[in-house]
Each structure stands twice: as C-alpha cells, then as structure tokens.
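Handout, section 4.2: multi-component inputs.
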Amino acid sequence: MPFRQAQWLLRMNGLGKGSGLGKGSGVEEGALARGDSRTSGFSTGSKPTGSEPCSANRRSVSTPAPSPGMGRGMSDRPRFEFSVAATDGRARTGAIAMRRGEIRTPAFMPVGTAATVKGMKPAGVRAIGADIILGNTYHLMLRPGAERMERLGGLHGFMQWDRPILTDSGGYQVMSLSELAKISEDGVAFKSHLDGSRHMLTPERSMEIQRLLGSDIVMAFDECTPFPATRERAESSMERSMRWAARSRDAFDAGGGHAASAALFGIQQGSMEEDLRRRSSEALAGIGFDGYAVGGLAVGEGQAEMFRVLDFAVDMLPAGRPRYLMGVGKPDDIVGAVERGIDMFDCVLPTRSGRNGQGFTWDGPINIRNAKFAEDMAPIDPESPIAPWSRAYLHHLVKSGEMLGAMLMTEHNLWFYQRLMAELRAAIAEGRLAGFAEAFRARYCGGKA
Amino acid sequence: MPFRQAQWLLRMNGLGKGSGLGKGSGVEEGALARGDSRTSGFSTGSKPTGSEPCSANRRSVSTPAPSPGMGRGMSDRPRFEFSVAATDGRARTGAIAMRRGEIRTPAFMPVGTAATVKGMKPAGVRAIGADIILGNTYHLMLRPGAERMERLGGLHGFMQWDRPILTDSGGYQVMSLSELAKISEDGVAFKSHLDGSRHMLTPERSMEIQRLLGSDIVMAFDECTPFPATRERAESSMERSMRWAARSRDAFDAGGGHAASAALFGIQQGSMEEDLRRRSSEALAGIGFDGYAVGGLAVGEGQAEMFRVLDFAVDMLPAGRPRYLMGVGKPDDIVGAVERGIDMFDCVLPTRSGRNGQGFTWDGPINIRNAKFAEDMAPIDPESPIAPWSRAYLHHLVKSGEMLGAMLMTEHNLWFYQRLMAELRAAIAEGRLAGFAEAFRARYCGGKA
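Output:
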C-alpha cells in the first residue's frame, strides 16, 4: 500500500501534485507566491490617523512585481502597511505588511495562549497557512512573567515563531479568569488564578507587558463590557475604555524602539447600541490607531445579534485600516463577519474543540468520539494535512485519551480554518463572495457529516 | 536573530552542515547510507534452528555493494535476515533485513502502546532514527480490538508507520494491568481494566492477535516470572513458558501468508538461576526461532543483578540470532547490556519520563521542572532536534502542563536513545566499545547536569 503520509510530505515540500492550500484559490495564492506588491497600501507614520481614503475598490489583483525574495531583512520591511487588493460588497481582501512578515486578510489567528499553540510546533502552525498567531498577556504576565520573557529574548525567540504575533491587552481575561478582580479608573487589581499573587493591570502596564513580550500588534487596554448590560453601564464602560485607549496610545508611543517597529490597535466598545458604537469609533479615530477591533461581541449575544451589531459597527471604523473581530468564532460566524467587512479573527474554538474531539468539515462539525466513526476508513477531509490517518484512527486516539489525537485534531481544525480563510480571500478577489458564502452555509449549516 | 529551527530543518533535509545522527558515527552510518550489503547474513527458512555458526568475528565493515535503492519492493526483501557486520568483545553490530525495512542493531524500539508513540507522529519517530517500534498486544486487543484492526488494514496502515513493528505477546501486561487474571496451563483468563469485559489469552490466541495486527516480529506467549521467585516457582514457570513457546511456534506457523512474511521470537525465562536459563535456552533453540529474547529481567532486581544474569544468560542463546532484552532500560542499562551481547531493546522510560519532565543528557538525566532551568537559554542538547527551544522554554511548558512540553521532551528523549544506539553501533564497528562505554559512564553516571 502506498502511504498517503509520504504523498503529503511530498506535497508539503512542493514535489507533488499541487499544494493543498493553493488549490481553489489560485488567483490570490498565486499572486502571493510571486511576491505580489500591492499598490493600494496605506503607509503609516508613528501616529496614524483614521482618515485615510480607501482607494481600493478594485476587483483584480495588481500585476505582480519582481519577488522581493525571502532574504529581505526585517528592517527593510514596513512597520505596518495595510493594502486592500480587492473588495466585494463590504468585504475586502489584501494584506498587512509588517517587519516580521505579511498577514493575508481576511486572516484567522490561531491562539497561542501560554507561548504555544497547544499541541503544535510553530513549523506546523505555519505549514497549515497561519501568517500570525495570538498570545495572551494575562497568562504570560503570570507565567513565565513579562520581565523574565524580556530577559529570555521575547516571545518570538522563546517559542520559536518568527512571524507576527498579536497580543491581547489582558483586559478580557483578567475579568474572566483571575480572582477578586477590582476595576477602577486606574485599571484592574486582581489575584492570580495560579498562585493567588496580587497584580495590577493598567493601560500603562499592559502596554509595558506587551512591549516586554515583543508583540507585533499590541491591543489597547479596555474593558470588555459584559452582556447583557444596561445602557448606562454600556455607556460608562465604553467611555472608560476610550479614556484607557488614549492612555494606551500614549504609553505605547513612549515605548521607544518597540513603538517604531510594532503596531497598536484600538478597540471599539458600546455593547449592542448603535450610537455608543459610533461614539466609540469617533473617539478611537480621533486618537488614531493602526487597526481597529470590534470588542464586546461573542459574549453570549448569539449570531443574529452579533451580525445585527456588525451591520452598523464595522462601517463606522476607518476603511483604510484593518478591522479585527475579537474572539470570533465558528466558521459560519467568520463567513458572515467577512461579508460585513471584518479582516481579522481569533478564536480558541478550532484548538480547544479539537482537543475535545470535535472536527470541522465542510458538512459541519463532527464529534469523532461517535461510534459511527470506529471503522470509518475515510480521512476527516481528503485535503487535510492529517488525511493519511482515518477517522477510525482519530476515533481510537481520542477515545483512548492519546495525546496524538489532540495533536491531529488540532492540526486539522487549524488547517480547516486557514483553508476557509484562503477560500474567502479567493472569493473576494474574484468577486464571487456572495455565491461562495451561500454555498458554504447551505452545506456547512444544512448538511450532516 | 537567525532562527535555530530553520537551521535544524535544513539539517533534516540534508541541506545544512552534516546530519545530526551521522556525526560521530561516520563509519557505520556512512556504510548504511551507501546501502552496504553485509556478507555475514543468516538467511532463514520458514522454521529456523538455533545452530547456525557465527562467522562474524570481524572488525571491519564489509565493502559496500551498489545501493539497492529505496525503491526495492517489500516482496523483494528477505523475510528475516540478521547479519553481524562487526563484533567487539561480546557486543555485535549489524542489521536485520525484513520485508518492511532494515533494523540496525543494537536497536532501541520506541514503545507505541496503543497504536501511537505517545505525543509523536510516525514521521517524527522515523526522523530521529527509529527503524522499528513496539506495539502492545494487551492494549490493542482491548481497544480497538484485534479483529477490528484487521478490518481496518492492520496496525501499520492504521497508525501510518510503514516500517517493522514488534508486538509483545500480551503475557506480561495481562498479569500487571488486567483485573482478576487467572493463569492455567491453557493460558490466562482476565477482565479488561477498561470495561471489565472477560477475555482469554493463550499462546494460540496471542499468535492470532499478533497476526491480525500485522506484526512483523511476533513474540511467543510466555509468563514473565515474578521477582523474587522461589526456585520451584521459577522452574515451573519457565517450564510452562517453554511449553507455551512450542504452542506459539505451531500457531504462528499455521498463520499462512503472515508466517511467510513475519518473524517469531522465543523468550528465555528462568529467573536469576543459571541452570534454569540454560535449560530454557536449550528448549527454545530446539524449537527454533528467528530471534531470542531475555525475559524476566528489569522486574525489580536492580542493575547489578541484571548484569550478573546477563553475564551467563546471553551467551546461552544462539549467536547467529538477534538477542532482545525486553523492557530495558536506562541508558546505562543499555550500554552494559550491549557490552554483554544484546542486540535489541525496548522501554517506556524515554517517552514516559519525558512526559513527566525528565530529560536525558550525556551528563545524566535532568528534571526540567527544576527552578534552575527557568532562565536557562541553552538547549537541552545542541544536537537535539528540539535544540531550537531553550531549557527555559521547556521548563515553562512542562510547568504549565502544556502538551507541547510533553511532545518536545518525548522527541528529545527518543532522539537521545537513538543517538546512543548510533554511537554504540559506531563504537562496536570501530572496535572501541570499551573506551566508549567507560567514557559514557564516567560522564553520565558521574556528572551532574
């Protein structure tokens, strides 16, 4: 029997019949492979404003320039340059160029909470198509600690991921994970869930920690408004987050060399209220950020309500900047959010649910523990990097509590997410997003795997 | 900073400065790389005897023949051919040629209990130099089940390992892991530790299960005599194991196509008694096996007692056949056993202790959880495949309970074991085993990492 694994290794090395990721997204991936230098970039100074015009309402990918090659040094690359290659309705596709590499958008960022994408080596994360990963400030400040991380050379060297890393501000997790969190105008005082030690997170300390970690995209320190919230609570929380956004901007800009090579994103709040979201957006644009996140969603409001908010919230953000929907989400959440103009996503779902035996397929998620898979010789997906192994084998591993089960399911799910993003990018570039999204939903939400 | 990981990948692809495994073992590895066809092979018929002469008391590696290439099909390869390329004292180095590939000896077999080497993909196990892995009959017969495994195409396809697999007989684990095991002349009746279901293992059923799994090297069904044992118990246990060995031989030979492509090993018992070991060896040689294992050691007797037994037990076994010391052991156990003529080993130590944070180094084992490693920027070993990551990172991962910590420590430890085997093979081939072993012990057992 010829071993499918060997075929996969050949494909990974470019020796076999076409790469998995390239298939089905020929225009975009081909352009990227040739070192496409897009023409609609927004170069940013040290303190950007939110008022750049968006000149990127084109469908076609620009003519590729000669490849800059892999040898281009970090210092030759822009600090932060977002270019939109094509739009389709409110959706956009393009890329963010940064010192440590390019981020193709719409992008999904695998979550690497504690300086590791759980169960994967960095080379594997990269191999399935991730351009950027996310690190969690709250976890890393407690263990190994921000100052220790700096002494160890920063998060990139520590975990051996040499491409961009986005770090959250710690604001969300300190409220959800720590003990006895007390919020004040200054920030949040809390006790570690690990050892009960006392800590304080402020906008200034969050910026310092993210600098010590060596983050490429730093998130402003904010309060993720709980759901549901009274209008009064939503308003006061948003207003404090905007004051913290200004303090974050100042503290980030005081970061010296780090500020000159990293980017800072602001976070829109305002709960489910259109006018609060608008005021938040205006406040953020007035401060000026490299990118803008939509915060305070995916907190239990449900997909319909989230989409209702995105319908007005996204267009409020500066069009020439990347828009990042934090903590989202399920594959169908992502498709709907891309249709509404979102460029970046992160979520623990593919990794966490993979460890629990949930696998994503184009026909919807499956629970590999189900007895019907015990003798299923088919791969979970014929294009998946884990296609050499059968569903029966995955079933056996996960049922047996074997580490390899969690490893393979994680790899598959992250591949599925990256493949979905590649398909979305191709569909936008080719002006067929509506048809792609409709076909995706019909199969993913209607079919049974 | 240039990333060490990239350098490692280059080395693995043969594009960098020399391969890790080849270093320090140039003669042997070089010969293997050229497809050395050894001249002192023992071709075996369907039922070998133990009386072949050993014509391999040479120091030099034979002149390499033209490479047979990797494309040689399974059916063109010998069923089982053990060739000794060189001896040094009682130690030997050579290779076992089988349908699914060559096993360089002395060999260490990583343990893949439940159809997975815990925490590693098969490609990784192969990349660090393993020629063969071990599967556990007891675990696999319970989950996923032997008949199911056959329906799924056998263990090789199931787990995607295309090289030789040795399976134990289940005799040892049924006594140590199952509930209510009752031994009789027929075999062992027991209840599964997983679900309490009732099962029976006999020599005939063990051979059938190992055939259904598609094992390449099948172990005879025996009783691992407990330690300590009275002389009477040791004698009666050994005698029953010899009757079971004959029944195993008959049942294996009735296995049709499987018997024509796989090998069967007998297992010497006799506890710590020289005369019992001799009678056991004579009984096994009379039956005739492809290889011979030393059983009933590494059961709590200690290294000195184990070496005392090996001093007389190994030479009793047919010299022209591989000798396998089951369940051993620590690196210094292996060095001492190789000096006493052992060719094959298996042990859970590198994998199990790796998951617990123990890492092997030439200066002895270290516990990566120790606080002194929290800011240690050095790799665990500069030649290790996990050298891109610092001891500080491993410390962080293991302390944090991260899966990647167990994965990296496992990979390192299995690499360490394979590297030790490669060094032993090179030392034997070059006639300098005594010096190598002395230097190894001085550093490994005397040094503090």
